[in-house]
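[agent] plan:
  1. take the single chain provided in the ticket
  2. run structure prediction with default settings
  3. attach structure tokens to the ticket
  4. add a short note for the reviewer (M.T.)
[agent] executing step 1
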Amino acid sequence: MKKINFEYAVKRLAVVWLVVSMAACGGSGTKDSNDALKGLVKSLKETAAENENSAVTDAENEKEQPAETTNEMVETQPEGEKEDPKRWIEGDFKVEYEEKMPTFSGISDMTEYTKVVRHGDVVYVYKRNQAAAVNRLYCVEDGKVVAYLFNPSNKKAKKDPVKSADLNSVLRSLFRDNVLDFSKLATMEKTGTETVAGLSCNVLEKSVDKSKEAAGLEALAKLIDKDGKNAEEIKKISDMNGSAKVWVDAQNRLVIRRSATINMGGKKSSGDLLKVTFIRIGSSDPDEVAFDMSQYAMQ
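[agent] step 2 finished; step 3 output follows
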């Protein structure tokens, strides 16, 4: 594994942490912040040898996650209504979205495009960025979910079993960190309504001052720099601050857009971390999932 550049590591962790604090995942307070930092440090160490512009990331996490409760900061279902508005993934749909990742210098210019189409018991996922493209087909065979990673150009494919109990679990895992991520919205303030991708959305906003996270910075210093030789590098970015803005479908079905602004060392970076560009709920085109795996050479 390559030696980790300390200044790079701290900057990357700080920016990622700031984005997480603004609008990425749940949890608040010193303990949760420190736990989040430990996870980020572990992740950084494990992936230090990888290139910043790596190939398309695999968005799967096969472990089934429980459905999240609707957030109080957006309009909730009428009293007595039990239906989870995010159950739209259990029917036919098509959604396309773009994502960008935070980097050591701010928000990356690298965009990853994703298209997900469900028609009946088949789900097609297509991902593309500047480095690569991935086609994946999920379907049910003999009562079990299987995944095909395939290349339409050379007609080659690889079949793998999936641990998820059903296609709904696959989709919840795929969308958990983006369009179905409602976990941080309770800390945000509703500021208005807008229409995005043809859907009426509630707009939520939040500002974060990194200098207030003194306890977290100390934890970061201890985790990365046990001897305290590079504490000054942490202090240089302790004044980092930023803001986040999230657009949520007014019916609480999904997050349509998520943007962030980051100020670090006098440099400002802003942009969309997530943006849904197309959404159709309740119907889909069967031709978009019509890939006959019997015509592919299995690897």
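[agent] step 4 note for reviewer: The two ends are 30 Å apart (CA to CA).
[agent] ticket updated
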